[in-house]
């Protein structure tokens, strides 16, 4: 439940790296990981934001429910998390900006062009590294 706080830390870090397991490694977003993109929303806005996401970008949106308590997951900022399961490849930078413009959206789980490198822990115990392409 720290989506926005994680994005703030990443945005101000001198060097940001991502560490993930092999299930998130893919050439196209969503190829392996099927749980969707998290989107932090103000609680009173989760229904209209859900409608706006599906209308504008397709796919399906679910309010993330808590496991150890009743009700939705509440972030450290007191907001809800929506999981958007998109159904096609998008121009992610444009989609990220458009989603953040929807009233009630606080932040997305898209960390576009932020990481210098991504380290993947592979199933066999090895490490695979992807570095940011120089511009």
From TrEMBL:
<keyword id="KW-0413">Isomerase</keyword>
<dbReference type="GO" id="GO:0004751">
    <property type="term" value="F:ribose-5-phosphate isomerase activity"/>
</dbReference>
<comment type="pathway">
    <text>Carbohydrate degradation; pentose phosphate pathway; D-ribose 5-phosphate from D-ribulose 5-phosphate (non-oxidative stage): step 1/1.</text>
</comment>
<dbReference type="InterPro" id="IPR004788">
    <property type="entry name" value="Ribose5P_isomerase_type_A"/>
</dbReference>
<dbReference type="GO" id="GO:0006014">
    <property type="term" value="P:D-ribose metabolic process"/>
</dbReference>
<comment type="similarity">
    <text>Belongs to the ribose 5-phosphate isomerase family.</text>
</comment>
<dbReference type="GO" id="GO:0005737">
    <property type="term" value="C:cytoplasm"/>
</dbReference>
<dbReference type="GO" id="GO:0009052">
    <property type="term" value="P:pentose-phosphate shunt, non-oxidative branch"/>
</dbReference>
<protein>
    <recommendedName>
        <fullName>ribose-5-phosphate isomerase</fullName>
        <ecNumber>5.3.1.6</ecNumber>
    </recommendedName>
</protein>
<dbReference type="Pfam" id="PF06026">
    <property type="entry name" value="Rib_5-P_isom_A"/>
</dbReference>
<dbReference type="InterPro" id="IPR037171">
    <property type="entry name" value="NagB/RpiA_transferase-like"/>
</dbReference>
